[in-house]
Amino acid sequence: MLEQLLQGDQAAEPVRFQLVFLGMLLSFICGQTTAWVYMFTHSGLSYSRSYVNALVVLPFLVSTVMMVLSNNLVTAFGLMALFAIVRFRNILRDTLDTCYILSAITLGMACGTGRHGTAIAGLILLSIILLYLHFTSFGNRQRYDVILNLQWTRPLGELSNFDLLLRRHSRVTTCASQRLLEGADGADLSYRLLLRDPSRMADLMDEVKAFEGATRVTGLTAQDESEL
Questions:
Q1: How far apart (Å, rounded) are the C-alpha atoms in residues 18 and 12?
Q2: Are 132 and 138 in contact (CB under 8 A)?
Q3: HSE of 31 in the Cβ direction (CA atoms, 13 Å)?
Q4: Please, what are the domains in the chain?
Q5: Rounded to 5°, angle at Cα 208 from 223 and 194
Q6: Are 37 and 79 in contact (CB under 8 A)?
Q7: CB-CB contact of 146 with 221 (8 Å)
Q8: CA of residue 126 relative to chain centroid, distance
Q9: What is the Cα–Cα distance from 211 to 4, expressed in whole angstroms?
Q10: For the sheet containing 146-152, what is the strand order?
Q11: Assessment of whether the complete model's pTM goes beyond 0.70
């Protein structure tokens, strides 16, 4: 039995094992490249690491599906029926969860249609891809460590010294929002900081609270921007 599995697909039109691996690897490279381009060019407010991972996995799964179908009309209609069940009977909020469902369906169809070689190659490479995405945290974008909110009660022209304080602790300092106070000097300010040493966040907060003109100081640690 093991020899039959390793010999390749046992369907009506067997597929060469080497070509199966080549097609799957090429689809993974295409998905990886697409994901990198998306990460580099994304500029919207909502960013999801799960969606980026799905961009890597989906081309691989589609490639496997096409190998399983292989111009078989009956198999194609069976696949459509299974996808309809997943789409309309279950609500999956995570994009990557959908990929897991799709992979389970695809591998099950490969086994059921006698394409054992395709099933083995798909299972091995898919497991490697998913473990790679997990252990490398692929798709994360850490652009800042701290969200600093405060009320500045002095004239805005005197912010230069305060900015110097922030730059001593951070490699990147971005003023995300500035709302002027009504009937008084100053403004409500919000900063995004990429710290030089994240372990010294407490020191930064102490210095900011002690700085003349800075009141109502609050700090929020941004562990991962990818789920915004």
A1: 18
A2: yes
A3: 25
A4: 2-135 (no CATH), 146-222 (3.30.70.260)
A5: 30
A6: no
A7: yes
A8: 17
A9: 75
A10: 170-180, 187-195, 146-152, 214-221
A11: no
- pLDDT tens track, the chain, 228 positions: 555 555 555 555 556 777 777 878 888 888 888 888 788 777 665 677 788 888 888 888 877 777 777 666 666 666 666 566 555 455 656 677 777 767 776 776 676 666 777 778 888 888 888 888 888 878 776 667 788 899 888 888 888 888 888 888 888 888 888 888 877 778 889 888 888 887 888 888 888 888 888 888 888 876 544 454
Give the pair of three-digit tokens for residue 179. 């709302």
3-class SS letters over the chain = CHHHHHHCCCCCCCCCHHHHHHHHHHHHHHHHHHHHHHHHHCCCCCCCHHHHHHHHHHHHHHHHHHHHHCCCHHHHHHHHHHHHHHHHHCCCCCHHHHHHHHHHHHHHHHHHCCCHHHHHHHHHHHHHHHHHHHHCCCCCCCCCCEEEEEEECCCHHHHHHHHHHHHHHEEEEEEEEEEECCCCCCEEEEEEEEECCHHHHHHHHHHHHHCCCEEEEEEEECCCHHHC
**What does the alpha-carbon distance between residue 147 and residue 203 come to, in Å, rounded to a whole number?**
15
Cα(81)–Cα(69) distance, rounded to whole angstroms?
14
